[in-house]
UniProtKB/TrEMBL annotation:
Family: Belongs to the cytochrome ubiquinol oxidase subunit 2 family.
Entry keyword annotation includes Transmembrane: yes
Record organism: Microbacterium sediminicola
Places the protein is found: Cell membrane
Domain of life: Bacteria
NCBIfam families reported for this sequence: cydB (TIGR00203)
Alphabetical UniProt keywords: Cell membrane, Electron transport, Heme, Iron, Membrane, Metal-binding, Transmembrane, Transmembrane helix, Transport
Encoding gene (name): cydB
Transmembrane segment boundaries: 6-32, 77-98, 119-139, 159-180, 201-219, 225-246, 253-279, 299-326
Protein's name in the database: Cytochrome d ubiquinol oxidase subunit II
PANTHER family found in the cross-reference section: CYTOCHROME BD-I UBIQUINOL OXIDASE SUBUNIT 2, CYTOCHROME BD2 SUBUNIT II
Amino acid sequence: MDLAYLWFWIVGVLFVGYFVLDGFDFGVGMSLPFLGKDEVGRRQIINTIGPVWDFNETWLIVAGACLFAAYPEWYASLFSGFYLALLLILLALILRGVSFEYRHQRESLRWKKGFDTMIVIGSVLPALLWGVAVANLVQGVPLDSNHEFTGSLLTLLNPYALLGGITLVLVLFVHGLYFIGLKTDGQVHDDARKLATKVGLITVVVAAAFLIWTILLAASHAAPLLPLVIAAAALAAVALILSILFNARDREGWAFTTGVFTVAFAVLTLWMSMFPFVMRSEPFPENSLTVTNASSTEYTLTIMTWAAVIFLPLVLLYQGWTYWVFRKRVTRSRIEKAEALVH
């Protein structure tokens, strides 16, 4: 296989990993206004991702670095054209990270509520804008002959892209609720399950509309991977429905696992809908960036491939070990005991 095509799939897998892992972080952050009736409950929710949220975000750094090295033309066009949306994502991620670290520094309820609000904003905004950005890559954006984006932020906020953003927000919200159900006990666990069922049913309708629209776009673009696009979309839909059923039966482990497959197959649906383009130009397809004309040299890709073969398994092993160490539930009694010792 040509290395340019190989790295298209490697970068895709890295983004799948990012949306699966940081995705439930976003969902947990979105849940704060709806779950956690008191401070102990809110600490329960935040502590579910406390040991892992920053590690999950490193998948975005790795994916971005690989995108820069493997496809410099794509990276340049994407980051110059989508710079305002990507800047907002970056600021939101910084806001969320700072809030996790600072909310417990003072006992003031107003102080903590302020940072909780920033956690919610820092979770909803990136999910929405990532959905908008990826949907625009599928649909196509205006590029000139130098592969430079000629639109604006309003160009990106079109109906299909906005539906993509809303869909991603809902899917990740449900994904996060499953994780909370898996990692907590008591009232938070029960409330997360009930809310996941309600939001899940809404998500089925919205996601179905978005996936059907995506398939129609891929068909209109004569996407060479159209059969795989349809298969991935169908698997995402089945996984979403199964996750809701497992959640309703209080099988939180299976609900979260099928939720992982929902996110993974949904991202793969969009990724395969782009192929062989990495940045499709509309209404002038001749200005598009493809897997081949946007890639680095064969020598660069060869070095990257050897580095990936050596280091990627190590990263996966280390992250797997981290999740194993922090595999236990975050119980309400443990937080109450810790609070009693402090006071």
